[in-house]
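Dear Dr. H.,

I hope your travels went smoothly. While you were away I took the liberty of generating a structure for the chain from your last submission, since the lab meeting agenda had it listed for discussion. I wanted you to have the full record in hand beforehand rather than looking at slides cold. The sequence, exactly as received, is reproduced here:
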Amino acid sequence: MKKEGENSLHPIVISPHRLRLIDAAVSIAAGDDDLKIAYHHMVFCQTVLPYRHVDDRVWKCTNGSLSLAIEAGMVLDPKTQQWINLPLPFGPKARLFQIYLDTQAKLLDTPIIELEGSMTSFIKKLQGNSPNGRELRNFKTQAAAMASALFHFSTVKEGRTSQIDAKIISNFELWYPKDERQLMLFPSMVRLSDEYFSSLRQNAVPLNYRAVAAMQHNALMLDIYKWLAHRLFRVPAGNPTSIPWPFLHTQFGHGYTRIRDFRRDFIVALKTVLTEYPGARVEVDQTKVKLYHSKPPILPKEPKPIV
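The corresponding predicted structure, in token form, is as follows:
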């Protein structure tokens, strides 16, 4: 029994996710010169992938005049030589994988990216430790899903529809794991399509690598962060943009029936995002989110030459 006046002290336990967020926020706020840059294509900053596994073979989302539809892919199993369906890409790992591809392609100025060794190194840098077998398999699952999927991008302007149907990845080598218990096929090399690579070179949005790594566990945070990274710099100075909650619900609120539930979770996620993007000028109330012109989260850099 605790005596009168005696303090009962309990250690405060902070999750690894929270520690990453705090550490990254401190480094970013201090202007750490060692902060690394990442890149992501503009179209993926304006649209979202599924947040969790879905059984459907087609995914659709809309952001204003821009719409995205994704068809889940299929691959030929190199062992059985039978066609098998792969799932739609989903969750934070699918997003991280595409950011990885975009960053490598932009910095090295090449559409061909080797995955096996460099991908393990990428995951290690994200997590701060080497990935275990389950974590690596999860990334490989999403890599295969992204590599095989077909993307439809469509914009509507002045009553006319302009549509592009494309594979983000035009070619990939698929390997069957040596361990028979691992049923997941995974790509060891991918080649971005010529159309996507050419567009990426002109439309890559700079992201702060530390911020991406800090929010690696949460797909909604990643989506809000890259959306703000693309959107805020384009808001005219002195002319803020207001976005009503129903529009944001259409863009980000997949899986939410009620807008008020979505708004609650969006605001919680946004508060964390703003700690990782301290230069972002955003105001929120019960009817809308107001965006003000802001500097990018990190200044773009010249691509490194191929060596």
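Two observations you may find useful: Residues 20 and 214 are 5 Å apart (CA to CA). Residues 36-291 form one domain.

With kind regards,
E. W.
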